[in-house]
Structures are given as C-alpha cells and as structure tokens.
Amino acid sequence: MNQSHFFAHLSRLKLINRWPLMRNVRTENVSEHSLQVAMVAHALAAIKNRLFNGSVSPERIALLAMYHDASEVLTGDLPTPVKYFNTQIAHEYKAIEKIAQQKLIEMIPDALRDIFEPLIDEQQYSEDEKALVKQADALCAYLKCLEELSAGNNEFLLAKGRLEKTLADRRSPEMDYFMDVFVPSFHLSLDEISQDSPL
Question: What SS3 state is found at 198?
Fold first, then answer.
C-alpha cells in the first residue's frame, strides 16, 4: 500500500499565519480559521433552510468550508491587498490556487479520491455552496477585525471597512440573520457574554 502525504500536508495549515502584513494582538492560523468558517457556514446553511426556504446540506457546506483554504498549505496565505491589487494578479493567483488544489488531490489514494476531490476543487461547488462558503469566509474575517479592534488594535480599522463592503456585496437573508443575532456578542467582554449563563 502506497503512503500518502495528504494529511501530513493539511496538518501544516496550523503553521500558516493569516493577516501576515498586519500587526495582530493574537495571531490566527489557517487551520483555526478554517474551523471557524466551517462552523459559521454550517450555521448560515441551517438558517437558510430553517428560516428562508433553502434546500442546501449544512453538513456538506461545513465540509466545503473546512477544506476551502486547504491549497494554502502549498501557496501560503497571500494578503488580500496583494491578491486583489489588480485583475491580472487576481487571475494569476486563481490559476496558482487551482494548481495547488490539483496537487493536493493527486496526493489522495485513488480509492478515496472521489470523496475528497469535490471538497477541495472549488469548481465542483454549486453556486449556493460557493456563496455560503464565501459569506462565511468574509464573516469570519470581519469577526477577526472586531476582536482585534476590541483589543485596541486600530491596525484592523481599514480592513473592517473593506469587509463591511464585501459583506454588503454578498448580502443574503441568512447573513442578515447571523449578523443581527450572533455578531453583536463579539463586541462584548467575556464577563458580558457570561452574565446570562453563569457556570
């Protein structure tokens, strides 16, 4: 039986820091970001189904979100201002990302490839799936900005403004619900969010 380096590569996502050009109060790595995006994407899908007549699979959405940045283990996390500096750079980075996704897929044993390929290859996402993962990704970046700003780090002020525009562009009823119900707590301290549920 041949060995596969697939999960050994994925385990290194924890070594790739996000926001590399920004001063961070607390460093965030790609692995923990992916978990948060998976949780938020799952919630968005559940909200869409339960409250807005959606028919997506929250479990599949969570899996897609879990793997959405897997290729960064090969490419690193390119800062957003660089990635989208102009259309040529954005286009070239997408091509590099696609090559990295394919390289990861090729590491998976043939007997399992059909399970993991649709999770890693974004071209196999439906439009609804793509939209929900992108919404969750932007929401989590926005939440990171709120956390940094709450800790007094004004380095994230412009990023917060940029992400507010991104969220407005990706707006949906399920995102509005999440923003109204869950996001305000991110402005509060631990004591404030613990008041109503003492241990």
Answer: coil
Residues 94-152: pLDDT tens digits?
A: 888 899 999 999 999 999 999 999 999 999 999 999 999 999 999 999 999 999 999 99
CA dihedral 139, 143, 148, 149 (to 10 degrees): 90
For the stretch 51-108, pLDDT in tens is 999 999 999 999 999 999 999 999 877 666 666 667 887 777 788 889 999 999 999 9
Q: Which CATH superfamily is domain 6-189 in?
A: Hypothetical protein af1432 (1.10.3210.10)
User: Per-domain residue ranges for the chain?
Assistant: 6-189
Sign of the alpha-carbon torsion through 140, 77, 127, 9: negative
d(CA 13, CA 125): 22
Structure tokens that stand for 107 in this block: 């590491």
On whether the CB atoms of residues 157 and 197 are closer than 8 A, the answer is no
User: Which residues contact residue 116 at a Cβ distance below 8 angstroms, ignoring those fewer than 6 apart?
Assistant: 6, 67, 105, 108
H or E element at residue 179: helix 173-181
